[in-house]
Each structure stands twice: as C-alpha cells, then as structure tokens.
Amino acid sequence: MKVGVDYYPEHWDPAMWVEDARAIKAAGVSLVRLAEFAWSRLEPADGIFDFGWLDQAISLFHAQGISVIIGTPTAAPPNWLVEKHRDVLPVDNQLHTVHPGVRCHRCYNSPSLRRHAQRIIEQLTRHYADHPAVIGWQTDNEIAANDCHCENCHREFIAWLQRKYGELATLNHQWGTVVWSGEYSSWSQVTTPLGGSPYQNPSLLLDFRRFCSDSAAEFNRFQAELIRRHCPRHAVTHNLWGYPVVTDYYDLFAAMDFAAVDYYPSTDLRDDAKANIYHGALTLDLTRGVKRRNFWVMEQLSGTPGCWHPMSRAPYPGMIRAYAWQSVSRGADAVVNFRWRTARVGAEQFWHGLLDHHGHPGRRLREFTQFAHEAARLADVIEGTQLHNDVAILFSHQQLNALVIQPQSDGFDYFNNVKQLHRVLVRQGIGIDVINWLERIDDYKVVIAPYLFLEDAAVVEKLERFAMAGGTVVLTTRSGVKNGNNVCQPDYLPGLLSRLAGIRVEEYDPVGKDRQRLRLGEDEVACSQWCDIVVPTTAATLGRYASDYFSDSAAITVNALGKGQVYYVGTVLDDIGYQRFFAPIISGCDIEFTPDLPADVELSIRSDGDKRLLFVLNLSPDKKTVALTPRARYNAFSGEAVAGNLELQPFDVRILVEELASRQ
Ligand code: GAL
Ligand code: ZN
C-alpha cells in the first residue's frame, strides 16, 4: 500500500520545496508524482534540456524516503515546439486549428510531436533510470481519443481503413455508402467525418471513433516502449480520466503494467442529480477490470473542485478519508491525492488540493494524514489481497460508441443503463467485476452481458459455452442488432443470441420515457426506454407486460441451456424491478449478498488465502445501521471482535478481518 500526493515543484518557489518535502513526509506520504506537464521547464528550448530543478526536487523527496513517479510531459507541448511545428496541433471537424493555451493541444499522429516526444522521453528515462527514488512512470496525462481531422490523421485514417477493408469496393459495400449517393470512387474522396450533417454514415462514424481510439492507444504504446528501453525495472502506467469515454481503455492500457485512475467523486451529496454516489463504485470496478488486477489512483479527491464550472461543495468532514478507503476497498494498491497545494496561478486555481491558498494545514490535510497513517498501519494486512467476485458485467467501449452515435430511445443511455445494473447489485453488497466483453469469463457464477448491440460471434460462443457448463447469463434488449461495421442484421433480434436466449423479438417499441408496467411473479414493476415484444421459442416466460397494446406479451424469459440458464430482459426495468428480477438469481447461484444494506453504504471484500477483509463504508453524511450476515470478524485496527449491528457515523469506515480458518 502506497499513499501519495501530486506535487508541482515548478509552480512554487524552490525555497518552499524543502519545507514541503518535510511536511509531505510528516503527512504519511511514501510516493509523489511529478512533472507531467512540465515540458517547458524540462526542455526550455529546442534540444536544450534542464533537469537540474527536477533533480533537486527529487533529491529532497529521496532524502525523506519518498518514492517518485515521473509523468512524461507530452500532454503540454511548449510554445516553441508549437510555433516551429504547427502539425503538433489538432484540427477540429470544421478544420479549425485547436490552439495552445490550455493543454492537450497535441495530435497523436503528428510526426513532429512523435519526434519531440521521443527525444524528451529518451532524455528523461536515461537520466532517471538508476535514480534510487524513481520507481515508475506515468505516460502523458489522461489520454483521450482526439477528434482530430488534421492532414496526418486524415492520411492515417485512410491507411487504417485500407488495412481493415482492403478494397474500396469492400468499404463501400460494408458501409452501405449507396445510401444518399455516398459511394466513393477513389480513396481520395474518403475523409474523416467533417462537420456539417448530423446524419453521417454510422459505419464511418464508428470506424472513425475506433481509429481515434487506436491512435491514442498507439501513442501510449509508443511511450511505454521508449520508457522500458531505458528503465526496464520501472513500472509504467497511465492515469485514465474516468467514464464514459470514446477511447477504448482496454486497448489504451494494453502496454501498461497496471491501470491507474483519476478519481473525483462528487462532493455535492445533497443534490441527487450530482451526487450519483454509485458512479464512483462503477468507475473503480471498471478500472480494476481494465487489467483485471489491482490498480492505482493517481489523482484522488482532496478538496473542492471548480474552475471552468462553479465550485462544488467542499468535501464533507470524513469524505476525503472515506473515499480514499473506498478506492482501496475496490482494489487500489496506491492512492495519490491531487494535489498537495492548491494552485495560486493558472487555469486550476480553484481546484483545491490538500492545502488551501493560505498554505496552512487544515481539516482536509488532517483527514488525509489520518488515512495515510491508517493505510501504513494496515499495509501488511492489505498487501497481496485482491477482489474475487462471482458476478461479472461485460462492458464495451464499442457498444458505448455505437449507442452514442445512434441513441435508441428517449432516455436510453448505454453507460447509465450499465450503471443501473451495477448499482442494483452494489446496493445489495454484491461484489462485481466489470470487464471487457472480449475477456475470459470462466470463473464467474453469473455473467451479465447487457446491450450487445454490435454482434460478435466469438462473444456469443463464449457465452454459450459458459452457460452450457453451468453458468448463468443475463442478456438484455438491444442485443444482436448490428454487425461489427454498425450495419443492421437481417434477422429476428437478438440475432445470434436468439438460440441462447430461446426467444425471438417479433416487434419492439422504443417507449422512451413512457413508463410501462410489467408483472414479474407476484409483483408489478415499472419499465421504460424500450419494450421488446418477446416470443419464447424454447424459453419460459418470467415477466409479462401489464400495460399498453403489448400487455400480456412476454418481456422477461429464462432459457435452460446445458447445465446453465440464459435470462433475457426485453426492456429496461426500474431499480426495484431489477432487484426483484435478480433476487432469485442471486440466491439460486449462491452469491453472497447483504439484504437490507442501507443506501449509500458500500461493502467490498479483498482477500488472500488466509483472510478476507470486509470494507464497510458509509459514503453519506447520515448515520447508518448495518446488519451484516453473521460471521466471526474483528476490527482490523483495534482487534476487537465485531458482532451484531454496525452503527456507522457519517463517512465512517470499518475494515473487518475474517480469518478464513474460522469461517462459519
Ligand atoms: C485531472 C487532471 C489533473 C487536473 C485535475 C483537476 O483530470 O489529470 O491534471 O487537471 O483533473 O482538474
Ligand atoms: Zn491529427
């Protein structure tokens, strides 16, 4: 377990560094991240490098026994570089240059950017390869798929399409360019999707998003290779921005040793629309799923966010510590807080760090210090523990992109709908892995494969094998609609999944925000967004609509397949509806859950061969009472046995140890 802070020596008078390094150490920090935007200081002029200041800062941290992660500075190309080589700058879809002034003004396909990035990364990695304080690297910062239409991207996009389709005739056929006379008779006519019509060919739009994502991933891979050349023993990672995004994080992190995330949960808890408390749990579960292993938080909430939008509420007392523990509870092995001091200059003056502008220690630093010291005390206990969950949700940036390009109905949102499924289970204390839809799934009991809009035969086959062997699969509406080129399939829905689900969808109604009723066993629940009118072939009907002209048609079914079951939910239920739907699945599959877990209390289990660590987090400003399922446990800090109800204060954190030998 490492606890750290992000620190920007270049923003502060060097006279302050010594004191800062000492105070950072006193706060319990063992790691700092440095330099990820400092290109203009590291290379003040073309080919003139100055690492003296960074040497000095690193040596101060080293003297305190603090390790260092260095960020490659490529997210902020300096003005001399931009002035010399305009191709560094991205170009938007109106062919306007994206000018410098903020950051991220760089096109991943710019040869000048590549050349200069290569040189600075080589210089840095040579220089710091054997520095005893430096343990690893962060590539760039929050790499996102650029929507860049510059000449280099245009050329690379054509090459990407040629690799994918070979002949232009194949592309014309696959994209269906015949519609509205969009046929290309020469490659020179193919452009990136330039601005103008909002109705562009969906196949072009999806391929362009994939290309942009691939360009980002390739830029990241390029950096990782350079770093490893000189620093083979150092860790290489990257800090992902969060979700939902165009960039396929599974590809972006292919060349990384582990994933890292920048985690800023909402501080506006009293405003439900903003609070969205379970978004954070999903972000962390997704991040753990990126490499299917523990991860780091490279930037963790430390103070009031703001700047380009009005400032949010200040973190409620206890929040900084509780959210840091939440990160750990869902698989973080390092938590690095953003940032030590709040900036006095530049664009982020009001994105608050641990210290306010006055620079004196206060409530937030005290809380962080408490967390850092607690983490140090439990480091040995936590070290080597991981999450082992029985339920997986399959996630896909491909589906997300396709469903953003063509929204299916009023209110239908892929990410929110995935979040809802996740939330319903998290609300019952169930541990869930959220993994790439293309990943191996053998070790789970239940696999939820929602909204497989773009069909993939290998995924269908994998789900079938999983069910045959005894697994439980949950499929949803808007599946099997298209092929991978974003073209509608000519079959009854859900296409290739029909056999697994034992149904066909003869008709559907994108009901949007019209709420419909549905009978599920003894209950009547609500649904909306979409209603498939399902005709079971081999499946049994579990739920029927109880409203509108499709009243009595099947909506939810289950099909026995081999030793397993395949459920199909032909609509989008409300949270209560999903709870009712999942209840028999959870008990039937012997999945651990906590009935009546209060809202905003999250449970999570990290374990190794000897013990389980049960994290119980009250992520709310209200008191909560939790009735855990009985088991022998003791408080990880005090060693006291814990039995009966847990009384949790606002933002309370409990870490309970269950020795596996003594499991009841
Ligand atoms: C992150 C970014 C940081 C800082 C922070 C606060 O997304 O990586 O550099 O900008 O947000 O806005
Ligand atoms: Zn470009």
Compact summary:
The chain is an alpha/beta fold and 664 residues long.
Could you tell me the mean pLDDT? Answer: 96
Uncertain spans: none
Q: How are the strands of the largest sheet arranged?
A: 11-10-12-13-18-17-16-14-15-19
Euclidean distance between termini CA atoms: 29 Å
Q: Which CATH class of the domain at 391-588 is shown?
A: Alpha Beta
Derived from helix and strand composition plus strand pairing, the structural class reads alpha/beta
Give me the count of strands. Answer: 26
CATH topology value of the domain at 391-588: Rossmann fold
Per the principal axes of the C-alpha atoms, what is the gross shape?
A: globular
Helical residue percent band: 25-40%
| Strand percent estimate | 15-25%
The description of the largest β-sheet is: 10 strands, mixed
Q: How would you describe the overall organization of this protein?
A:
The protein is α/β, with parallel strands linked by helices and 664 residues long. Among the domains are: 391-588, Rossmann fold (3-Layer(aba) Sandwich), CATH 3.40.50.880; 601-663, Golgi alpha-mannosidase II (Immunoglobulin-like). It is built from 18 helices and 26 strands. The strands form four sheets. It has a ten-stranded mixed β-sheet, sandwiched between helices. α9 links the parallel β6 (239-240) and β7. α1 (14-26) runs parallel beside α3. The longest helix is centred in the N-terminal third of the chain and has 29 residues, at 202-230. The two termini are 29 Å apart. The mean pLDDT is 96. The protein binds beta-D-galactopyranose and zinc ion. Zinc ion (ZN) is lined by residues 90, 107, 109, 148, 150, 152-153.
